[in-house]
Amino acid sequence: MLKQLIVPVSLVVNIALLRVSMAWRSHGQTNDELVDNLKAHNIIQHDEVEKAMKLVDRGLYAPHNQYMDAPQSIGYGATISAPHMHAYALELLHEQLKSGGKVLDVGSGSGYLSACFAMMVGEKGKVIGIEHVPNLVTQSIKNIEKHAPELIASGRVKISVGDGRKGYEPEAPYNAIHVGAAAEQGVPDELIKQLAPGGRMVIPVGNKLGMQALEQIDKLLDGQIVRQSLMDVMYVPLTDKDSQYTKW
Q: Which of 39, 57, 73, 79 could cross-link with 44 by S-S, CB 3.0 to 4.6 Å?
């Protein structure tokens, strides 16, 4: 049985929390300007994150207000998260997004963050996106193919229809797992099982009424699980396809 240790928020994340209010001022007129503003506000701190976000133009993924630092609807009860939240996710997973790494993107939606992950893990890496709305899977593949068709053709990015709460066992284990919707019933056991030793998961946890926290979950080399609650967030719920269709 895996041991779990819950530790307080680190100093680095506390500093980041002081910058959250600045994140909302990071709007741009272009993708490069948006990324430059996120860097100026210290949301982006690593060159690799900056490069990935400049290589993947958000304007090809968000149907409206492409460079506004706010979440946008992409239909079917789903959203593309605010750019500063994408930047936080890439920063929090930075150490796991090395060349040759394997990533699971749960609730991959528009495909934007899956493409960013692919840029960071390079030609030897692989990204698996899981999305339970077939139309979003189709659209996300088209989005990626607009600027980087080789990611799909080579298999470096694979977007599949499925229940993200169950992960994607055929490609496990994963160095990094990102979950783009809030787990109302707690962190799914299957996702923890599919995290590689030394791996990290970033997942919002909590109910749909706004009592949500972004959690960082590390699996140590001995299998121990270390959880940190980082910041308050608001995400759409991690749910089943029928529930999401009903809301849509």
A: 39
Residue 43: closest CA among 71, 64, 17: 17
Largest CA distance in the chain: 50
Instruction: Compute the distance between CA of residue 219 and CA of residue 193 in angstroms, rounded to an integer.
Output: 9
Amino acid at 165: R
Give catalytic residue positions.
81
- Phi and psi at 32, nearest 5°, equal -60, -40
Tell me: the pLDDT tens digits for 34-86? 999 999 999 999 999 999 999 999 999 999 999 999 999 999 889 999 999 99
pLDDT digit string (tens) for 92-126? Answer: 999 999 999 999 999 999 999 999 999 999 999 99
Q: What angle do CA 41, 9, 95 make, to 5 degrees?
A: 65
- Would you call the peptide bond into 173 cis, given omega within 30 degrees of 0 as the criterion? yes
Secondary structure percentages of the chain, helix, strand, coil, to 5: 40, 25, 35
Q: Write the DSSP string, 135-187.
A: HHHHHHHHHHHHH-HHHHHTTSEEEEES-GGG--GGG--EEEEEE-SBBTT-S
Dihedral sign (CA 224, 15, 70, 158):
negative
> Based on the number of CB atoms within 10 Å of its own CB, is 137 exposed (0-12), middle (13-18) or buried (19 or more)?
buried
CA-to-CA separations, 134 to 50, 170, 211, in angstroms, rounded = 30, 20, 29
